[in-house]
Amino acid sequence: MTGPQRRPIIGGNWKMNTTLSEAVELAGALAASLPPERWTEVVVFPPFTNLEAVRESLGESRIGLGGQDVFWEERGAFTGEVSAEMLLSVGCKHVICGHSERRHVIGESSEIVNRKVRSALEGELKVILAIGETEVERHGGKTESVVSDQLRRSLEDIPAEIMRDVVIAYEPVWAIGTGVTATPEQAQAAHAFVRLVLVEMYDDAVAEATRIQYGGSVTATNAPALLGCPDVDGALVGGASLKPQEFAAIVGAQERILNGG
Ligand code: PGA
User: Fold this and answer.
1) Is 191 considered catalytic here?
2) 171 is catalytic
3) Could you report the average pLDDT of every consecutive run of 10 residues in the chain (261 residues)?
4) Looking at residue 35, what is its pLDDT?
5) pLDDT given for residue 37 in this prediction
6) Where are the domains of the chain?
7) Which residues, in sequence order, are bridge partners of residue 174?
8) Exposed (0-12), middle (13-18) or buried (19+): which is 131, by Cβ within 10 Å?
9) Using CA positions, which residue lies closest to atom 3 of ligand 1?
10) Are 63 and 31 in contact (CB under 8 A)?
11) Which residue's CA lies nearest to atom 7 of ligand 1?
12) CB 215 within 8 A of CB 238
């Protein structure tokens, strides 16, 4: 079971889905579906264009709002980019940095991710830092070296006392949007390894306190086993977060684990 000191966090990454009206409808349905009495922290990450409307739609549901990405400069001539301050100004408290689609489709390096992480934290956003190996890397026995390298480079110059504002999302690239999920054993092993790297980078206290979400084809069906792993502190959910009942069931699974099954 998740260590009692770590509050689980379930994120809904809507990616490039939802027009304005679809987003408002989804947010309203989510607000109505989630278990009202819950300890699990829940955050949704709609497209930038829908952030403000979603915030209004979420109302008093205690569902947090986050951006899917952020740029590292505060303002200026950076066409198409969005700053931490802009995200804060529409009610975001969180932002995802280094999602695999940014790393592998857009081509972001860990150095770029690190600039984003630093500017987000300086801008008082909480960061969901996504890391994870590709299928080729896993089959080549490189999972640990890739994960360790992404962690160290993405978190360069982030001091221990700021790590309370960082959540790690371990998302094996081969499991994202594929319907193939890591087994609970694979997820647990990777999460335990991430914690080991955090001990080396920081200390035991930071490693124990840092929340590590699993991401990659999480559904209501596989959530209980994945979320039940001792080092898994929640999930970052893509496809299933667009289905309110399914997402609510994932949050419900987390709550049941917290309540002892
Ligand atoms: P998925 O996406 O749940 O659709 O696999 C997860 C993610 O990209 O965060």
Assistant:
1) no
2) yes
3) 75 98 98 92 98 96 97 97 98 98 96 98 97 97 98 98 98 94 97 98 97 97 98 98 98 95 74
4) 82
5) 87
6) 9-32+39-89+106-237
7) none
8) buried
9) 238
10) yes
11) 238
12) yes
Q: What is the DSSP string of the chain?
A: ---TTS--EEEEE--S---HHHHHHHHHHHHHHS-SS--SEEEEE--GGGHHHHHHHHTTS-EEEEES---SSSSSS-TT---HHHHHHTT--EEEES-HHIIIII---HHHHHHHHHHHHHTT-EEEEEE---HHHHHTT-HHHHHHHHHHHHTTT--GGGGGGEEEEE--GGGTTTS----HHHHHHHHHHHHHHHHHHS-HHHHHH--EEEESS--TTTHHHHHTSTT--EEEESGGGGSHHHHHHHHHHHHHHHTT-
Q: What angle do CA 27, 28, 32 make, to 5 degrees?
A: 115
Token output for 12: 């809904």
C-alpha of residue 77 to centroid of ligand 1, in Å = 32
Would you say the CB of residue 238 lies under 6 angstroms from ligand 1? yes
CA-wise closest residue to 110 among 177, 66, 157, 60: 157
Active-site hit among 101, 133, 137, 171: 171
Tokens found for residue 51: 């952030």
Q: What are the residues whose beta carbons fall under 8 Å from the beta carbon of 246, sequence distance 6 or more? A: 219, 220, 240
Q: Residue with structure tokens 């949704």? A: 44
- Homologous superfamily of domain range 9-32+39-89+106-237: Aldolase class I (3.20.20.70)
